[in-house]
Amino acid sequence: MKKSKSERRRKRIESMRKGIYILPNLFTSFGLLFGFYSTIHTLNGKFLKAAWAIIFAAVFDAIDGKIARLTKSNTDFGVEYDSLADLIAFGVAPGLLIYSWALKPFGRWGWLAAFLYVICTALRLARFNVQINTVENRYFQGLPSPAAAGMIASTIILFFHLKIGEDTKHLPILLITYTLAFLMVSNLRYNSFKNLELAKRKPFSTLIVLIFLLIIVGAEPQIMMFSLFALYFISGPVNFLLRYRQRRIQKVLKEREIQV
Predict the structure, then answer these.
(1) CATH of the domain at 55
(2) Which residues, at least 6 apart from 61, have a Cβ–Cβ distance to it below 8 Å?
(3) Is residue 102 part of a domain?
(4) What distance in Å separates the CA atoms of residue 87 and residue 246, rounded to the nearest whole number?
């Protein structure tokens, strides 16, 4: 039998009275700190530092989830706190950053695009919390908000690194903003990488590949970071097209079997 709302609420209250797990929530707090730090830099016009702060927030967001799973310290409080922190670090902070850096010339359309990004982040996080125990663990439904924020931050970092002209950034960033907002609330599947389980034994080649990736990223961090976020960004639509093509092929084969 399913538990009633009052029973679930009483269980959460009793869990809170017992206390909270410090370590994963501490890393969540660091992610929130860097999200707030990003907004401070944006308000001061230091857009490159604001972008890097979002990247560091994404790193801490990845770590807190890993720690919670490894130490088996997942709680309802942790889920809610993580979502609130993500809304600030990966919704408000990048939304304010892209508007201040590239969308101001569009006037009302500029801040509406930034607001659309923020509200889609909130909707993405709310849907994730509702479906956390019902969807397949290996995949996210829609582009995760940290990946969307990382795409924005890495794009800005790449612009500064390559010293691309100021006049060329406005329209591409506007298009990227709308695309990211759509992908976050879409039903496209993105790999969660929760099945990697690096703490367990892996083939020796896995270590070699990881070391090679770290060397490449270390050699050209700005370019490689953008490339990795971009690959993940397009992986959702590409996987959808591949699965659609596979279904079409299977349908044709079944029709041929019926005719025979």
Answers:
(1) 1.20.120.1760
(2) 28, 31, 82, 85, 86, 89, 90, 146
(3) yes
(4) 36
